[in-house]
Design goal:
This protein is an alpha/beta fold. 44% of the residues lie in helices and 14% in strands. The chain has a seven-stranded parallel beta sheet with strand order 3-2-1-4-5-6-7, sandwiched between helices. α1 (19-30) crosses α8 (225-237), α3 (69-79) runs parallel beside α4 (104-132) and α4 (104-132) runs parallel beside α5 (153-173). The longest helix is centred in the middle third of the chain and has 29 residues, at 104-132. It is globular and about 55 Å long. The protein starts with 9 loop residues before the first strand and ends in a 10-residue tail after the last helix. The mean pLDDT is 92.
């Protein structure tokens, strides 16, 4: 693969000032794309500018509230007057809470950031893509779109809906030449993950928690932001792929925790060669 595979393409990574979003932006820029990212705070935007400058990557960073549909539309028009080639929606926020202790306001905020914002960003980018007959939208979903755990009701619902939006939108615009896909990261070693672990289990050793989490993965490690970036770059090049959610989790959701009995096939199979009387 040429390291300039996306030369002259215009890309916007919402939520691209840090973590997975920045890794995606950096790889797209290194592959030749003209990349703009946005963050919700002045601090994150300034930090991104410093990081990109040190890495000598031509990444432009702006401040934007992606939940504000009008502002998002204006930002996209300003970034690419002739239309984006690639839109990556990585902005979002994790929400903890079960059904009984999640307020209506918390539910709405979760849906605004994790579902409504990607929809509005897509709606702003699509007219120019459709008119040109090409373009790619990538949503950053989560393995929680495919499975579930306790006390994350609004977040799991939002991410599952985002994967459904991926399929629906892909079919809606398929004839125009625009593709829509998603990536579903698992445990990715970011500041966000470490902070979430610390908040969920106050006083626990986060380093030990990461080691234990890594041991649950068939690949023997948790993910890196670059793993997600590579998946997005693949989708940017894969012209025949649309409507798909690409899971990036080191095999975690494919594996199944086995009992001690199931882990001992030799003992279990020892009797299979014996023939019982009367059979």
């Amino acid at each position: 693969m040429s390291d300039r595979a996306l030369k002259s393409r215009t890309a916007f990574v919402a939520g691209g000032t840090r973590g997975m979003g920045y890794a995606i932006a950096a790889l797209l820029a290194a592959s030749g794309a003209r990349v703009t990212v946005c963050g919700s705070t002045t601090k994150s935007v300034e930090a991104c500018r410093v990081t990109a400058r040190r890495a000598k990557l031509p990444i432009k960073a702006i401040q934007l509230d992606v939940a504000d549909g009008e502002a998002s539309g204006g930002a996209i028009a300003g970034i690419a007057p002739d239309g984006l080639d690639i839109l990556v929606c990585c902005a979002g926020q994790a929400f903890r809470g079960g059904a009984l202790d999640t307020s209506a306001e918390q539910w709405d905020r979760c849906m605004d950031l994790n579902l409504r914002a990607p929809f509005l960003l897509s709606k702003a980018a699509l007219p120019a893509m459709i008119a040109r007959g090409s373009g790619l939208i990538v949503f950053v979903s989560s393995i929680w779109a495919l499975t579930a755990t306790a006390r994350r009701v609004p977040y799991i619902v939002a991410k599952a809906a985002l994967s459904s939006l991926t399929r629906a939108l892909a079919m809606d615009v398929a004839e125009s030449g625009v593709r829509v896909n998603a990536v579903a990261p698992g445990y990715i070693d970011t500041e966000f993950l470490r902070r979430s672990m610390a908040e969920a289990t106050p006083g626990a050793d986060v380093g030990k928690m990461l080691v234990a989490t890594a041991a649950r993965h068939p690949r023997g490690r948790i993910g890196k932001p670059g793993d997600v970036a590579e998946a997005v770059l693949y989708l940017a090049r894969a012209d025949f792929v649309t409507g798909q959610t690409l899971v990036v989790d080191g095999g975690l959701t494919t594996s199944f925790p086995l009992s001690d009995f199931a882990k001992a096939p030799a003992a279990r199979n020892a009797s299979q060669g014996k023939t019982r009387k009367g059979r």
